[in-house]
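Teaching assistant here, posting this on the class forum so everyone can see the example we discussed in section. The complex has two components, and the goal was to see what a joint structure prediction looks like when all of them are supplied at once.
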Amino acid sequence: MPALRIIPCLDIRDGRVVKGVRFQGLRDAGDPVERAAAYVEQGADELVLLDVSATPEGRGHGIATVRAVRRVLSIPLTVGGGVRSVADAGRLLEAGADKVAVNTAAVARPALLAELAERFGTQCVVLACDARRTAESWEVVVRSGTTSAGKDVLAWLAEAEARGAGEVLLTSWDRDGTRAGYDLELLVAARAATSLPLVASGGASHAEHLAGAVASGADAVLAASIFHDGDSTVGSVKRALLDQGVEVRP
Amino acid sequence: MSSVLLVPTGTANLASVGAAFARQGVDVALSLEPDAVESAPAVVLPGVGHFAAAMRTLTETGLDAALRSRVAAGRPTLAICLGFQLLCATSEEAQGVPGLGLIPCGVERFPKGVRTPHLGWTKVVADDGCRLLSSGWASFAHSYRLTTVPPGWRAARATHGAPFVAALERGPVLACQLHPELSGAWGAGLLSRWLASAGLRRAEVA
């Protein structure tokens, strides 16, 4: 069985790492290449790069950033933000991505998932899904959380798996950047809805939160703020998880 | 600068493989020329994608014969992920499409109930007597796997649901289900030893 993966996430805007709260109020958090190299050194198992400006402003991806990060990165790299077509995904893979994450474009045109899987294999296709709580369940939000997609998260995950997604990156919009902990109920429900590898995202602030996500069915945990702000390192989080009996890569 | 020849079968994560060799101080050249692929000092057959599509590329370009010849002759060859599966006889991913048959076994999908794809870092254990492979943690991304070790090869094994073959070596021929280019310092060590076996680099002290 794979060890729990710890995945620092670099949100990128204009070639810089940024971080906000609930996708808004973005502040600078450093140079992507320096961050990537530091996280590899700390023991990160994978890195996610999201171009947070790509969808709202309709721009393409910072290919140069992907190339520069790839040069220093000896671990898997997922890149997302603004991927609308097989050609978009191909450009990111050519620049150095190992997996491509799709979000808004897959909601608008679910067939994109199958097209990507046929061309690149399911293990290359990550469905990124931003979930916002409703009275009874969770709804999919798109365009950086500004718009409801009118879809139920759990139904969407099951559909995405059937269409060819190979992994789910599930972000709680409600918890993003808040450090209030992952939305564990969301993870439990998502685990029941799909058998794909599940990456928990949104709200982590310490190792207990990460252990909680594992207990709720996550195969990997993504975090940004806690690593960018230097409160924790990947190494310190892994040591704390080991103490709690969670298997991590040393 | 010494260089390895990379076979672009279509949709592999070539940039990741290229970057890993660049960090080793080795250049990568791309070629689909059968003569070049048959005789180059070191060849990498990477792979992300579909078994049938990749085999079609190899047959249409005549690379199938070139690869069979160089692997049979024991020339330094590194196959990664789908590249590893292409060396096998068959795959459940593409019924009726023969592979290169250099490894006389079939690749099968992970059974139901096992988290698929197998994504992430899993411990591998190298057989005694391995010269290239060592035990450690390796990065994987695959839905199909080999479960039997063919005669004449030494193996590193891993477990996901049940034991499977993480990698095989026979002289300077290294066939990896795992991704050495994405396996951090452990993967870099493996690439370094393979390059040394190809005479492209001095062996690093483990």
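For the discussion questions: The radius of gyration of chain A is 16 Å. The longest helix of chain A spans residues 32-42. Think about how each of these relates to the inputs above.
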